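We emphasize that the prediction below concerns an isolated chain of 135 residues; any contacts that depend on oligomerization or on bound cofactors are therefore not represented. The input was used exactly as deposited, without trimming of termini.
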Amino acid sequence: MNSFPPRTATLLYELDKKLMVLLRDGRTLIGYLRSVDQYANLLLQRTIERIHVGKKYGDIPRGVFLVRGENVVLLGEIDSLKEADQIFEKVSIGEILALQKQEQDAKAEKAKLMERSLKRRGMPLPPDLVQDDYF
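Result of the prediction step, given as a token string:
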């Protein structure tokens, strides 16, 4: 008797394949799936965290990475042939982190301006613009 629920059992076909995993907090991980359990927890090996900013990206090596199943938004196999035909430019870790910080600062400034504008009009801030500091 199979102890895995039907959806988790299909992940068994992905073992030892290179996968891209999008997490709830927005991070993108790429690694080789080595193990999965009944809760869809994933064990990734040779994992990198890929950060995209515009048409540039950078990879941060993370090694062995355990992902709780509840944090997975999207999961898919990476086609090695198509991976080589990227339109994105790879940059250093330092450069991509600096670009990411600039992008986050710009979004925060835009949200502040929106909040001030709405306050002047006596309107509350929409829930999708509220800044969450717990990530």
